[in-house]
């Protein structure tokens, strides 16, 4: 429900992403929380916090280094507040989506500081959501989480344990493919397969080659099978 537009799950955000608009939206959200408190209106409170979390995520994308860190921390805090209401046993989809949004915030935070630590946080959150978003219960979300985990492990491979993390990325991409193997005309199917090919090449020649076309890479590195 709260999946952010910049995540790997859905398309563009439905609201303008200018600093002026987002700042006003945050102000309105904070005013809403003065009325919709956790004690009186828990669901409205959680919805408002979820929206605030998204606004802070967007604000982080267009602010400078110092402000970016603070906005991402505010985003994580807002999503965490929403989780006080949207617990896994009562609101499973909201819980899964909020975990994904917090994971995204940590991924963005990794670009600012503590890269490995924050990516590991992002991975942990996604794995927690898989307790609810199983292949049997919510197959679409399961596939998207597997795809996102693949991306996170590739990001982590740039900083540590390259080969091990790339192999994990390949494994998660292959798991996501299970849901698309009968959809040969689905663009996601092709992007997953391409991701696997590129990641496989990466184990031999390094993360720097990740975005090369597999055939081009093979021509440059003829020893790669």
Question: Can you tell me about this structure?
Answer:
This protein is mainly alpha-helical. It is 67% helix and 0% strand. The chain folds into two domains: 1-132, Serine Threonine Protein Phosphatase 5, Tetratricopeptide repeat; 142-225, no CATH class. The protein has nine helices and no strands. Helix 4 (92-110) packs antiparallel against helix 5 (115-129). Mean pLDDT is 77; it is low at 1-13, 182-190, 201-214 and 220-225.
Task: Summarize the helices and strands and which ones pair or pack.
Layout: H1 19-35, H2 42-61, H3 65-83, H4 92-110, H5 115-129, H6 139-157, H7 162-177, H8 187-205, H9 214-220
Helix pairs in contact: 1-2, 2-3, 3-4, 4-5, 5-6, 6-7, 7-8
| Secondary structure: number of strands | 0
CATH names the topology of the largest domain as Serine Threonine Protein Phosphatase 5, Tetratricopeptide repeat
- Rg over C-alpha atoms, rounded to the nearest angstrom: 19 Å
Shape: globular
């Amino acid at each position: 429900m709260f999946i952010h537009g910049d995540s790997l799950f859905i398309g563009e955000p439905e609201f303008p992403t200018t600093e002026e608009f987002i700042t006003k939206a945050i102000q309105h959200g904070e005013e809403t929380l003065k009325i919709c408190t956790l004690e009186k209106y828990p669901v409205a409170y959680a919805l408002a916090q979820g929206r605030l979390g998204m606004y802070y995520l967007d604000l982080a994308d267009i602010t400078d280094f110092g402000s970016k860190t603070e906005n991402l921390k505010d985003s994580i805090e807002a999503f965490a507040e929403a989780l006080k209401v949207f617990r896994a046993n009562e609101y499973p989809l909201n819980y899964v989506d909020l975990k994904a949004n917090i994971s995204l915030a940590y991924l963005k935070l990794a670009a600012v500081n503590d890269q490995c630590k924050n990516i590991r946080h992002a991975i942990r959150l996604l794995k927690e959501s898989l307790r609810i978003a199983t292949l049997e219960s919510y197959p679409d979300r399961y596939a998207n989480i597997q795809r996102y985990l693949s991306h996170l492990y590739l990001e982590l491979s740039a900083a540590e344990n390259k080969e091990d993390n790339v192999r994990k990325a390949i494994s998660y991409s292959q798991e996501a493919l299970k849901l698309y193997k009968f959809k040969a005309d689905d663009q996601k199917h092709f992007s997953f397969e391409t991701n696997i090919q590129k990641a496989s090449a990466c184990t031999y020649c390094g993360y720097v080659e990740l975005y090369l076309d597999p055939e081009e890479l093979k021509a440059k590195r003829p020893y790669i099978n």
